[in-house]
């Protein structure tokens, strides 16, 4: 949807043969959008990143269709659906699925695609984390912890894969208007009295308070950096965590 869709469109615009993977059939909307813009068939696979066997199957089929996979972009994400402040407003049971999607899901995808990249001795991985993984945001503690783990895993993977010519980086968006961001507001508002801020009011106040550039970050901003990191211009960039956050981490 948000960032994943923007990255798919950006890579297609650069001439990449894009393969889409999502657990939701709505990915077909992006498939049709890409096919209209590129004039060629765009494969899609339905599978959940928490299902390792499904990711292995996806990697095998994608490789069979295109001969090789050069770039893997992991943009799956899930929050707890609850609001922190403090963390004990949640239950320990609220953590498991968030960790499985955001962290273990990335591990599953890496395990599925890395064997062919090692053989080819080329390729890139890009994991979409979040600035919440750097600043310990209390808004959704399971999400923050999972995204912090993802940053660390990307560094481990970068070290392991460097000798094979495979680069691994992590990208951290800030305030992006996505369904996940709106879910955070909805969880917050559910605990507020009648007449609490609308989503736009809540977001505008949060941006003004936390983001030095005082504006939203767009999915297209994130996609532009993703394309650069996959390109030969970034041939010496690996193991890095880069922010597209309007200066929020600096300000924090």
What's the layout of helices and strands?
Layout lengths: L2 H11 L6 E3 L4 H12 L5 E3 L5 H15 L4 E4 L20 H26 L3 E5 L3 H4 L5 H21 L5 E7 L5 H11 L9 H12 L8 H12 L10 E4 L3 H4 L1
Parallel strand pairs: 1-2, 3-4, 4-5, 5-6
DSSP strand (E) fraction? 5-15%
Structural class by sheet pairing and helices: alpha/beta
The N- and C-terminal alpha carbons lie at a distance of 28 Å
Q: Tally the helices: what do you get?
A: 10
Low-confidence blocks of residues: none
Average residue-wise pLDDT? 93
Backbone shape: globular
Strand order of the largest sheet: 3-4-5-6
- What is the element string, with H for helices and E for strands? HEHEHEHEHHEHHHEH
Residue share in helix: 40-55%
How many DSSP E strands? Answer: 6
Q: Major β-sheet, in short?
A: 4 strands, parallel
Cα radius of gyration in angstroms: 18 Å
């Amino acid at each position: 949807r948000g960032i994943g869709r923007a990255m798919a469109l950006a890579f297609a615009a650069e001439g990449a043969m894009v393969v889409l993977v999502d657990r939701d059939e709505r990915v077909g909307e992006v498939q049709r959008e890409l096919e209209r813009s590129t004039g060629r068939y765009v494969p899609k696979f339905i599978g959940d990143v928490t299902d390792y066997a499904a990711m292995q199957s996806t990697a095998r089929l994608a490789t069979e269709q295109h001969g090789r996979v050069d770039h893997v972009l992991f943009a799956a994400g899930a929050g707890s659906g609850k609001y922190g402040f403090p963390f004990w407003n949640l239950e320990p049971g609220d953590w498991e699925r968030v960790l499985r999607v955001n962290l273990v899901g990335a591990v599953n995808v890496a395990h599925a695609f890395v064997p062919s990249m090692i053989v080819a001795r080329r390729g890139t991985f890009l994991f979409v984390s979040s600035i919440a993984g750097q600043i310990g945001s209390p808004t959704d503690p399971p999400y923050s912890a999972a995204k912090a783990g993802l940053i660390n895993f990307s560094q481990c993977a970068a070290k392991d894969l460097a000798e094979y010519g495979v680069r691994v980086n992590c990208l951290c968006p800030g305030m992006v208007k996505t369904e996940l961001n709106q879910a955070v507001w909805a969880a917050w508002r559910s605990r507020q009295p009648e007449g609490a801020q609308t989503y736009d009011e809540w977001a505008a106040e949060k941006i003004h308070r936390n983001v030095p550039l005082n504006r939203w970050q767009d999915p297209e901003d994130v996609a532009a950096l993703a394309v650069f990191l996959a390109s030969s211009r970034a041939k010496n960039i690996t193991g890095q965590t880069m922010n597209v956050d309007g200066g929020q981490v600096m300000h924090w």
